[in-house]
Amino acid sequence: MNKTILRPAIAMIELIFAIVIMGIVLMSAPMLISTAAKSGYVAIQQEAINEAASQVNMIMGYHWDESNTNEDFIPPILISGGDSELNEVNISAEPTGRRSGTPEESYRTFLRADGQRLSASNIVGHTLKDNIDDFNGDTSLIEIEDAGSIDYVQDAATININTTVRYIDDNSTYSSSSITFSPDFITPGSTSSASSTNIKRITVTLTNKTGAPDELDKKIILHAFSCNIGGYKLEEKDVN
């Protein structure tokens, strides 16, 4: 008597479904790879923006001008052009060393501790980075002593970083109730490298290099400004 033994096996319909699913996965693989690559480019761009923001923040921590970098004195307000409302009050009759509205207790003054009044200088870069002007024209990051330059960009071959520093318009409209101040941060014609106002603009521009992927074909500009307000001195409390 013959016995029939039934063993578990793959049904034809199951095999067809498996082949169809594998085909769908293989067809979507190029799209998944492309999406992953684009995500990588976005990450590179975000790293570049983070790098540029770090550049701006570090530059803002430097002295305003070459003329007030002497560490032996509190940086004075520098004699510059621009809005006359920001000039020293009563300089011809009874010099105060201060701008209108500045309290007498303030260390922000046109007079340095040795009695000198100093003029702001034209924007000219120097090898020694001791004021914000020195970063004008830089195409790299700030270098840290004994550490080299900071670089967050994963693929430096795709991103250009350029820094410029310029004087910008500081004129304002004053009234009894308000002050209107609207410098043009975009138009190149409103900027100058010659000593002309009391505000300097710092601009870091990100652009793609030749041959970079289309996903990085963008121009990103970060602006900041620094004002000619002099330095300050921290008050000390006598605990005795």
Structure characterization notes:
This protein has 240 residues and is α+β, with helices and mostly antiparallel strands. It has a domain at 14-62 and 121-227. It is 20% helix and 17% strand. It contains 1 helix and 8 strands, in the order H-E-E-E-E-E-E-E-E. The protein has one helix at 12-60, and strands at residues 143-144, 148-149, 159-168, 172-174, 179-181, 191-192, 199-208, 220-227. It has a 4-stranded antiparallel β-sheet, covered by helices on one side. The longest helix is centred in the first third of the chain and has 49 residues, at 12-60. It is elongated, with a radius of gyration of 30 Å. The N and C termini lie far apart (115 Å). The relative contact order is 0.19. Residues 147-156 have low confidence and may be disordered.
Please report the distance between the alpha carbons of the first and last residues: 115 Å
* Proportion in β-strands: 15-25%
How much helix, percentage-wise, in residues? 10-25%
Multimer state: single chain
Tell me the strand order in the biggest sheet.
6-3-7-8
What is the number of strand segments?
A: 8
Shape: elongated
Overall pLDDT score: 78
Number of H- or I-type helical stretches: 1
Give the SSE order as H and E letters: HEEEEEEEE
Using only C-alpha atoms, the radius of gyration works out to: 30 Å
Query: Pairing-aware structural class of the strands and helices?
Result: alpha+beta
Segments where pLDDT lies below 50 for 5+ residues? 147-156
Summarize the main sheet: 4 strands, antiparallel
